[in-house]
Design a protein that fits this description.
Elements: H1 6-22, H2 25-51, H3 58-72, H4 77-91, H5 97-117, H6 119-122, H7 138-159, H8 163-173, H9 175-180, H10 185-211, H11 217-220, H12 223-228, E1 258-268, E2 271-281
Antiparallel strand pairs: 1-2
Length: 283
């Protein structure tokens, strides 16, 4: 594998700089999202690109990182994703080709089942809300994501440009030759799968910080408001709540035509009252 060329290094360095200087907040958000998915792709490249092993659990490890960041904080996310990756890799060391791919698919399916049915922990199909208040967003998140991405890409290119790259190529293209030379394919797969899972978990944590919902106290008490997932300010009973974009049967999204009542329990200092919220929706 060749070292990272100057052209691509300049592209990596200029992308966040141009975004910070010339792009509006929405454009900066998109550049941050690009960096997040590139970071997850870098982790995938460790396993598939270097060893030729098809890893179908990368998205699941990404999700584990997002849940870990929401429940325990962003620094925990890489470790939370690396642990199941290590367990899965240890159990599948001797599997080759599509057998390894099916084993990683089983891991992805297991993570999906847990995320959907452990509602007290994950929120089920509705997910989690209200965890992003302490997480950085905007330009600061963009800088952090791209700084880690650039450092990871440069380190990856330098490591695999020499002897490590040649050994990985042998494992990928001539596993029998690699075995005769004493290269331990199982150890390589374990280490790279864990590192790739940690990068996926870190990317998932950044995605949670970017997309996490910050809900108000009153809006959080209405399950329909939670299902919409909007950042709603407290609104007194009887006034309308604007839900831009809308979504679902209760809030189809729109202006001028209809009003959909929502009954939300409100907690006041003197006791519990009930108010009605109406949402203006447009088709």
């Amino acid at each position: 594998m060749q070292a990272l060329g100057r052209f691509w290094l300049v592209v990596l360095l200029l992308s966040p700089v141009v975004a910070l200087v010339a792009l509006p907040p929405f454009g900066q958000r998109m550049v941050t999202l690009i960096g997040i998915y590139a970071l997850m792709g870098l982790g995938y490249q460790l396993v598939f690109g270097q060893l030729g092993a098809l890893n179908l659990a990368q998205g699941a490890l990404f999700g584990i990182g997002a849940y870990a960041a929401a429940l325990a904080g962003l620094p925990v996310a890489p470790l939370a994703a690396a642990i199941p990756a290590a367990l899965a890799a240890a159990l599948t060391l001797r599997l080759q080709s599509h057998y390894f791919a099916l084993a990683t698919l089983a891991l992805a399916s297991l993570v999906n089942l847990v995320a959907l049915h452990a509602e007290s922990l994950t929120g089920g199909a509705n997910g989690l809300a209200g965890f992003a208040a302490g997480m950085s967003r905007g330009p600061s998140l963009l800088v952090v994501v791209w700084a880690i991405l650039i450092a990871g890409v440069v380190l990856y290119a330098r490591l695999f440009a020499g002897t490590l790259g040649e050994r990985a190529r042998l494992l990928r293209e001539a596993p029998l030759v690699a075995a005769t030379l004493g290269i331990d394919a199982g150890r390589w797969r374990l280490v790279l799968f864990v590192l790739g899972g940690a990068l996926a978990g870190l990317a998932g944590a950044f995605s949670a910080a970017l997309s996490g919902v910050r809900r108000s106290i009153q809006a959080s008490r209405c399950w329909r408001c939670r299902s919409v997932g909007m950042n709603m300010a407290p609104t007194p009973p009887g006034q309308s709540v604007a839900l831009p974009g809308g979504g679902g049967a209760e809030c189809p999204g729109a202006t001028n035509s209809r009003s959909y009542p929502l009954t939300c329990p409100l907690s006041a200092q003197s006791g519990s009252t009930s108010g009605r919220y109406s949402t203006d929706a447009r088709r």
